[in-house]
Amino acid sequence: MSIKEIFTELIRDVKSGGQYDTRLVDFDDANRYKTILAIDKLSDNQQCVLLQLKNGGQQSDVIINNINTLDSIQVDTFPVADPGTTGLDTYYSIKLDRNTEEDIFYAFITDIIETAKNSNSDLVILDILKRVKSWMNFFKSKKTGVLSENGQIGLFAELTMLKTLLECNKENLLDIITSWVGPKKQNQDFIFPNTQAIEVKCTTSNNLYEVKINNEYQLDCSGLERLFLAVYQLKRHKISENSLFQSLPNLIEDIKAILQNDFDAKFDFEGLLLDVGYLAEAEVEYLDFGFQIINGPNIYDVDSEFPKLARTSISNSIKKVEYNLNLQEQKIFSNNVVELISL
Asked: One Pfam family, short name please (predicted)?
């Protein structure tokens, strides 16, 4: 029975008394978690997920307080009333705003259920809350689950770079994934533990050498050992079933295949996709289009001589900076990022 059908039954067959009507949908033999779908009868049958888990203590309280600053998500806790349980001493109730689109609501609930099922942690709640925080970023940015054309092109370029780095650093998969900080609104797309960084740019025009710099910090080397600018030239094509051009979902599946034996890396990667606004449930929106890498990556060393605008040289009265950068006179430092980045 689908999640939607379970909620429909709960609302149709609502019982008298109590706050929640519930349906157990998943649990594990080790009693680490129970996942329960519920309607809150005191809130006009609002649909939610209840998680019966070990109490995460102060660590989870801090995360929950942060999540609850956003109107779209509400996490509440209360003691488990079942005296027969051992070690499972807290209910975590997670609700979404009633105005959440139905498809996104069910995608959220499904993701929470799968996160509990796949967690390797004894404190499952910490993985749950980490994933909820990714959803929090998704809702905070008012994303719809479907990226714009420019968003798809930019993500394809960043994921192409990510895949290259993962394939050549299979002993450090989690380090590579956590170095992809673009989805977290950092100044550069990749910042590695040794403070080397990569800013990824792509162009779909015929001019390989002109890229748009979105702010004065993207090419700012402050605090970095070294910064590289990696430029791809891409074309987006309408594709057929047998097309050789790779779609965005295909590229994501390739990356997940690399990460399949590393739960933490795969878990973080899926959270980062949420941060950029990509929902797996909406992948049908992307399957008709593929991407051709015409050139790249052309990698430039952003040193002190590299042309750029920096905050230190800009008046504080200027609050927003965007500019187009012509790279035609700049020497391409390399075409192989793996030779430049060492973890």
From this structure: DUF4420
Helical H runs in the chain? 3-12, 57-67, 102-118, 124-140, 149-167, 173-179, 248-259, 263-276
Q: How far is residue 93's CA from residue 75's CA, in Å, rounded to a whole number?
A: 6
Q: What is the pTM of this model?
A: 0.88
Q: What residue spans in the chain does CATH classification 3.30.1460 cover?
A: 3-140
CA 124, 127, 131, 133: dihedral to nearest 10 degrees? 110
Q: Which DSSP string do the residues of 187-205 spell out, in sequence order?
A: SSSEE-TTSEEEEEEEE-S
- Residues 75-124: tens digit of each pLDDT: 999 988 666 655 568 999 999 998 889 999 999 999 999 999 999 888 99
Q: The domain 3-140 is classified under which CATH number: 3.90.75, 1.25.40, 3.30.1460, 3.40.50?
A: 3.30.1460
- Indicate the pairing of strand 210-213 with strand 323-326: antiparallel
